[in-house]
Amino acid sequence: MHRFANPNRFLKLANALLPWCAGLTVLSLAVGLYFALFDSPPDYQQGETVRIMYVHVPAAWMALFVYACMAAASATALIWRHPVADLVAKSAAPIGAGFTVICLVTGSLWGKPMWGTWWVWDARLTSVLILLFLYLGYIALVDAFDDPVRGQRAAGILSLVGVVNLPIIKFSVDWWNTLHQPASVVRLAGPAIHPDMLWPLLSMAIGFKLFFVTILILRVRGEIAAAKVRNLQLSLAGH
Amino acid sequence: MAAVADYFSMGGHAGFIWTAYLVAAVVLIGLLIGALHHVRRNEARLLELRAARRGVPDGPGEPAA
């Protein structure tokens, strides 16, 4: 039972947090959507299409944040052999990939009316596409071995190598001339965005973050059960 | 009525804006359904196996969680 000591403690905490995370996700997304769609002004340059920002930008933040979480969990698993950390990394990957898909598709839908093109191979767009491939590579690799520990180790190393892509994405708009606009919220001089647009944006961002935590808890619970199933099957097969 | 139609037309960019929100909703709901399915399948399998294990007469036995 020693092996399960940690996961069981995790489960206790996770199950206590789950209803709060789920409820607050619904609340902040409802508030965010109301302001994003009904009670925020059109942009003076971009008109109504600026409303795409309220899903595009939080999804982009989450695509990076989830990757950072996944890499940190992988590092924890590789260095300290923490049994839950591997499962956290594995559970985060499909969620991060989902946010990256939202980011790329909504960006494309925003680019067509504003830039006149669905896609350009500029630094920001290309580096986010590479992020999606890193997520997909991780998802493929983690289940590619019969022994889940080997898969988690290989995929964990891939995720750590991919961390180099995060600053490239963040600073791509400063380092290279891109069609993509530079940061207007997270910058040293403070947000260059009107509060009427900032609040719905932040509310959606909090909603996305809580959504991530909710789904992560559910998936890790599933992974812990799957790991216990594997161990039980091994001990039953021993008879 | 005209105001509602005007709202949904989103300044002539309705196709782009509503599609963006629809895609986001589909992906997020898909992640939720996938996660619920994942946790239910594995937890059901675990209960099944624990029951089967209790059925083994001379097994070491594991206290139910």
Features:
heterodimer, A: disordered N terminus, B: 65 residues, mainly alpha, rod-shaped
Fold and architecture overview:
The complex is a heterodimer of chains A (239) and B (65). By secondary structure, chain A is mainly α. In chain A, 77% of the residues lie in helices and 0% in strands. Chain A has seven helices and no strands. The two termini of chain A are 19 Å apart. Mean pLDDT of chain A is 92; it is low at 1-5. Chain B has helices spanning 2-9, 14-55. Chain B starts with a helix and ends in a 10-residue tail after the last helix. The mean pLDDT of chain B is 84. At the A-B interface, helix 2, helix 3 and helix 7 of A face helix 2 of B.
Query: What is the gyration radius of chain A calculated from CA atoms?
Result: 20 Å
Number of strands of chain B: 0
The dominant shape of chain B is rod-shaped
**Secondary-structure element string of chain A:** HHHHHHH
Quick take:
The complex is a heterodimer of chains A (239) and B (65). Chain A is built from 7 helices and no strands.
Helix-strand layout with pairing:
The complex is a heterodimer of chains A (239) and B (65).
Chain A lengths: L1 H36 L15 H28 L2 H33 L7 H20 L5 H14 L3 H11 L19 H43 L2
Helix pairs in contact in A: 1-7, 2-3, 2-5, 2-7, 3-4, 3-7, 4-5, 4-6
Chain B lengths: L1 H8 L4 H42 L10
